[in-house]
Design a protein that fits this description.
Blueprint lengths: L2 H20 L3 E5 L2 H11 L5 E4 L3 H5 L2 H7 L3 E2 L8 H8 L4 E4 L3 E3 L4 E5 L3 H7 L4 E7 L3 E2 L2 H19 L5 H5 L14 E5 L8 E6 L6
Parallel strand pairs: 1-10, 2-3, 2-4, 4-7, 5-8, 7-10
Antiparallel strand pairs: 5-6, 6-9
Amino acid sequence: MDQYVIKRNELLAQKVIKGLASRNMTGYYAADKEEALRIALSIIPEGSSVTMGGAMSAHEIGLVKAVQEGNYNFIDRNKAPDPRAAMLAGYDADFFLTSANAMTEDGVMVNIDGNSNRVSMIAQGPKKVLAIVGMNKICDDIDGAMKRARNVAAPTNAQRFGLNTPCAKTGSCMNCKSPDTICCQFLITRFSRHKDRIHVILVNDNLGF
């Protein structure tokens, strides 16, 4: 990565971290994926119960593998005999691993969800939320964050899941009401009443969608 892009990301990350602090959330900056993983594991005590949504960014830094193979109680609904029971058990977990579809420069997090388990767990559920966010997801403001979520994240995820939505075919949001739509619930996290419940690791890399 170009040295000037690295410097720009470092400076921008500090602005985002300051914004998160003003919203009762805790931010960190990682220079690369390896540092992001070290920070994440320093936040999650061994023995913790951990669950997650479909956070590609957590996979990309190696966090999911580390939790699966480490001394943690990983609640994996994808491998559970009863996925719904595992999902419900996840609401009482110590940590929820996630990312963001977009985040503003002043620390507001935007997420869109289809089944809504991810946004509901961010809003209320596990004791702590740990979001891994690449610097490619930082936007100027709420309007920009919503546009990114709907026109970048949603079409890409629709294609990844093989869904029959207009955005999967056109590459941009068509404001559809398709049975396959993944734009069912929109969550804008602008403040946390519970100080330091939400932790965000900003990574100097292009992560997720």
